[in-house]
Write a structure and sequence with these properties.
Elements lengths: L17 E3 L4 E3 L1 H34 L6 H56 L4 H22 L16 H4 L10 H18 L12 H12 L3
Antiparallel strand pairs: 1-2
The chain binds zinc ion (2 copies).
The site of one zinc ion has 4 residues, from loops.
Protein name: B box-type domain-containing protein
């Protein structure tokens, strides 16, 4: 009977009939009841706190923020990018149009001027042989330009292919604060799991089968909570 040598750790007088595996000390029946009672109160406080926390978590989770300024910034970025793409495309269209039409416009204008000169000469009858030669030469030139104009214009388009752009790097977000809270909590949960796999308080597993252990269960059941 090894237990007879243990006295209650609270009153130090009575025989320690119950052993708390959490504290690792013996209690007399009365003090053990009080000891458990204190623990139950602490558990009740934990549950009360948990319920308060649930309320806060519920409110925080429900309160999703659709008006976060980040959304506005993303919208603004999107608008700016689209505007810039539109602007550069429009500029390129103008360039193509100019390349295609500039020679036509020039030929039309030059031919108009030439025709006016010709009409003037015809009306005034103020021309001599070299004028006829010059007019013939100019018409030959116009004919040549016209042939050039009818050939297809060779214009090369240079683009940055969209699949070469790393779109995910053009716009992305990153959490700035180093929030260790979740990691710390998960660490504690894991430790608890490991402890639970062995025994509730990292006591040797034979505690379950020891008579002292069964005494604790009887005592706690007797408490009228
Ligand atoms: Zn006692
Ligand atoms: Zn204890």
């Amino acid at each position: 009977m090894t237990r007879t040598s243990n006295t209650c750790s609270v009153c130090q007088k009575e025989l320690g009939t119950s052993f708390c595996t959490g504290c690792g000390v013996y209690f007399c029946t009365k003090d053990f009841k009080n000891h458990r009672k204190t623990l139950f109160s602490e558990m009740d406080a934990v549950i009360e706190h948990r319920n308060e926390l649930q309320e806060k978590i519920h409110k925080a989770v429900q309160h999703a923020d659709p008006y976060n300024p980040l959304f506005e910034q993303i919208d603004q970025w999107q608008r700016t990018m689209i505007e810039k793409i539109c602007r550069v495309s429009e500029h390129c269209r103008e360039q193509v149009s100019q390349l295609l039409n500039s020679k036509r416009v020039k030929l039309t204008n030059d031919f108009k001027r030439f025709s006016q000169d010709l009409i003037h000469l015809k009306q005034t009858e103020n021309y001599v042989e070299p004028d006829i030669t010059r007019l013939k030469y100019l018409m030959h030139q116009f004919n040549h330009e016209l042939k050039q104009l009818l050939k297809p214009v060779s214009i090369e388009l240079h683009t940055e292919p969209s699949d070469r752009i790393i779109w995910s790097q053009l716009l992305y977000v990153e959490e700035k604060s180093t929030y260790a809270g979740i990691n710390q909590r998960q660490q504690h949960e894991r430790e608890d799991d490991r402890a639970g796999a062995m025994s509730p308080r990292k006591q040797p597993s034979d505690c379950y089968s020891s008579p002292i252990r069964s005494l604790i269960y009887i005592s706690t059941e007797d408490l009228a909570f």
